[in-house]
C-alpha cells in the first residue's frame, strides 16, 4: 500500500481532524506520517505517527504556535510565514527521505502544496477550518460579516479583503519567494496553493454561505470526527448547558466565569470544559460563580447528546458537532475563523450569537431565548444535523484522498460518488 505525508499546522483541532482522516486511510492499509513532532500525534497505531528527527528549524517554527501571543491578529502572519519558510526549506528533503507517494495538506499550510508540486507528488487539500477558497461576493473566512448581495456588502467584503491582504504580507512574501524558487506559476495567497486533484472540506453546502465558484473538485464531507447514533431528543427537567472555549481559549478564566454566572441567572445547570487552561483556584472560582461541573476535558460528543444547549467559541469542529447532535449553539466568537463561523450560524437561523464582551445578564437572555425557540427552529436544526450526518465524513474523505493520490487525476464531485458509492 502507499505512504502519505500529512502536512498540517501544529494546532490541536487541525491535528485531531487530520487524525480522524488518517485513521480511515490506515484502515485501508496505507502508512501515514504527520510532519510534526511525534508527541503531538495519537499513538498506538503502527501505520500512523509523527516525523522522527524533524529539522531544528521546523521544530522552532512549530513551537512558536504554542505561545498565545504569536497567534494574535497582528502577529499571526509572522508565525505562519516562519512555519511556511521552514517547511519550504526542509520539506523536499523530508519527503524524499520518507519516500512518500503523495501528500494530504491542510489548506492553512501552503508549503505542502508548493513542495508537492515542486517534487511532482500528487496531493489533496483539506479544509479543517472554513475553506480559504475566495469568491468576489463573499467575505473572507476570517471576517465576521453577515452575508449580503447588495452593493454595500460587496464593497465591505472587498475593502476588508484589501486590509487583510496588507496584514498578511509577511506570509505572502514567503509564498511568492518559494513559488519562484521552485519554478512554479506565480502565487502568493493560500487559495492559490490548493490541489487541482481534490479539495476536501468539513461542513456542508447548507452551512456555508452561498457559493457559486467552487471548483468541481471541491467536496464537503460533513465532519471528520465520528458521530454517535442520535438518540431521541428529550428536554431535561433542569436544562443542561455545555460551555467550552476550545483548546486555544480555555485559559480565559474571566470569560468562563461570566458564562457560569450567566447560566446561574438563566437557572440552568452548566458543565464547563476548560481544556487544561485553568488552575485549581480558578476551577473553584467557576464553582463559586455557578458552574455545576468543571472538567479539563469531557467526552464532547456524549455530553452534547445529553445537553439542551451549548455556549461555545464558534470553533468549526465544535459547532459542527453540536449541530450534528441537534444541540443548539449560543456562539461567542473569540479569534481566527470563529467570527465567520458565528456569522454562518446566525445566517441560517441555527443558533444565536453574543459578544465575548457581553455581561452575564445578556448571555443569560440569549440562553433563555434559545431554549424557547419555535418548531421552525427545531426543524432547521434537524435538517442541518441530517445534512452533516449524510455528507460522508472521514470515510468519504479517505476515499476521495485515496482516489486522487493513487490515480493522479482530478476527482470531481459527481464522479467521486459514482466511483466510491458514497
From TrEMBL:
Residues 292-384 form the Glycosyl transferase family 28 C-terminal domain. CDD domains: GT1_Gtf-like (cd03784). GO terms for molecular function: hexosyltransferase activity; UDP-glycosyltransferase activity. PANTHER family: EG:EG0003.4 PROTEIN-RELATED, FI06409P-RELATED. This is Putative glycosyltransferase. SUPFAM superfamilies: UDP-Glycosyltransferase/glycogen phosphorylase. Keywords: Glycosyltransferase, Transferase. InterPro entries: Glyco_trans_28_C (IPR007235), UDP-glycosyltransferase (IPR050271), UDP_glucos_trans (IPR002213).
Amino acid at each position: 500500500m502507499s505512504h502519505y505525508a500529512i502536512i498540517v499546522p501544529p494546532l490541536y483541532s487541525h491535528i485531531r481532524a487530520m487524525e480522524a482522516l488518517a485513521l480511515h486511510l490506515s484502515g485501508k492499509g496505507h502508512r501515514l506520517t504527520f510532519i510534526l513532532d511525534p508527541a503531538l500525534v495519537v499513538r498506538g497505531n503502527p501505520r500512523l505517527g509523527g516525523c522522527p528527527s524533524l529539522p531544528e528549524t521546523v521544530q522552532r517554527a512549530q513551537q512558536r504556535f504554542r505561545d498565545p501571543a504569536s497567534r494574535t491578529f497582528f502577529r499571526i502572519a509572522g508565525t505562519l510565514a516562519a512555519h511556511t519558510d521552514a517547511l519550504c526549506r526542509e520539506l523536499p528533503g523530508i519527503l524524499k527521505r520518507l519516500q512518500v507517494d503523495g501528500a494530504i495538506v491542510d489548506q492553512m499550510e501552503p508549503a505542502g502544496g508548493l513542495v508537492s508540486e515542486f517534487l511532482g507528488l500528487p496531493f489533496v487539500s483539506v479544509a479543517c477550518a472554513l475553506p480559504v477558497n475566495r469568491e468576489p461576493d463573499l467575505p473572507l473566512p476570517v471576517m465576521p460579516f453577515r452575508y449580503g448581495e447588495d452593493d454595500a456588502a460587496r464593497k465591505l467584503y472587498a475593502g476588508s479583503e484589501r486590509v487583510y491582504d496588507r496584514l498578511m504580507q509577511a506570509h505572502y512574501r514567503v509564498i511568492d519567494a518559494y513559488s519562484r524558487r521552485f519554478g512554479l506559476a506565480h502565487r502568493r495567497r493560500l487559495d492559490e496553493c490548493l490541489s487541482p486533484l481534490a479539495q476536501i472540506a468539513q461542513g456542508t453546502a447548507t452551512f456555508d454561505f452561498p457559493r457559486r465558484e467552487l471548483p468541481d473538485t471541491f467536496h464537503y464531507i460533513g465532519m471528520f470526527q465520528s458521530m454517535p447514533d442520535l438518540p431521541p431528543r428529550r428536554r431535561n427537567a433542569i436544562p443542561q448547558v455545555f460551555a467550552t472555549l476550545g483548546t486555544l481559549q480555555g485559559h480565559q478564566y474571566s470569560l468562563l466565569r461570566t458564562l457560569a454566572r450567566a447560566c446561574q441567572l438563566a437557572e440552568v445547570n452548566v458543565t464547563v470544559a476548560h481544556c487544561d487552561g485553568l488552575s485549581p483556584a480558578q476551577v473553584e472560582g467557576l464553582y463559586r460563580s455557578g458552574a455545576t461541573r468543571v472538567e479539563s476535558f469531557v467526552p464532547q460528543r456524549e455530553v452534547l447528546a445529553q445537553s439542551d444547549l451549548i455556549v461555545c467559541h464558534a470553533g468549526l469542529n465544535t459547532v459542527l458537532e453540536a449541530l450534528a447532535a441537534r444541540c443548539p449553539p449560543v456562539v461567542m466568537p473569540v479569534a481566527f475563523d470563529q467570527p465567520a463561523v458565528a456569522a454562518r450560524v446566525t445566517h441560517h437561523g441555527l443558533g444565536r450569537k453574543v459578544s465575548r464582551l457581553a455581561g452575564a445578564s445578556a448571555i443569560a437572555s440569549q440562553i433563555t431565548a434559545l431554549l424557547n425557540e419555535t418548531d421552525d427552529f427545531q426543524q432547521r436544526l434537524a435538517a442541518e444535523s441530517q445534512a452533516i450526518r449524510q455528507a460522508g465524513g472521514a470515510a468519504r474523505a479517505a476515499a476521495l484522498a485515496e482516489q486522487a493520490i493513487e490515480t493522479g487525476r482530478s476527482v470531481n464531485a459527481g464522479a467521486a460518488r459514482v466511483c466510491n458509492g458514497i
